[in-house]
Every structure is written in C-alpha cells, then in structure tokens.
Amino acid sequence: MDSGISITAEKLVEVTAKYASQIAVKEEEYVKAVGFSSREMGQRVVKRVSFWLITQNSTLLYCRLCNRGPFTKRGMFLHLTRMHHSEIKLMLEEEIKREIKTIL
Ligand SMILES: [Zn+2]
What we know:
Radius of gyration: 13 Å
Number of helices: 5
Strand content: 5-15%
Bound molecules: zinc ion
C-alpha cells in the first residue's frame, strides 16, 4: 500500500511542477500518471500541492520552498524538478494519503 503511494507520488512530481509553473497540463497527462479512474484524485492532489510551491507577483514566479526567483514558467519548472523533487514527492504522498482516508 505505502509503496503504491510512493510510486503514484513519483509519477505526479513532474505534472505538479508543470502545473505550479503555470504550464498547461492536459488531462491525458494525469491519466498517464495515475490511470483513468484516479485522474480526478490526481488533479486535486496536484492542485493542492502546487499551492505550496510558488508565489506569484504579477507575472513573476518565485519558489515558495526556497524563496528563489523570479523565474519564467520554464525556469520555474526546471527549478522545481531539479531542486525540490524529493520535497514535492513527500508533499504528494501526504495528500494522496489524505485522499485515500476520505475514500475509506
Ligand atoms: Zn526553490
């Protein structure tokens, strides 16, 4: 069960970094990451975690985890995936656990 959560979280890290960086994420990317039946759960989890990742000041993006910036969308995405991969994964795991609790 826990390793399942870890695998799901890992698959959602890139999508989360993308969403947080305000790069459009297609529905099929959620389906690819978590499967068709869990895609809505995936979207909720990604949205919630993204909230903690960036601060926006007009069109400029700043990292909320380390206060670096400003970044372009692409720069923000690269920063998040390179510098904060494991933190984002942990945050995703927590949110996925919460989702599972509300289902059970
Ligand atoms: Zn950062």
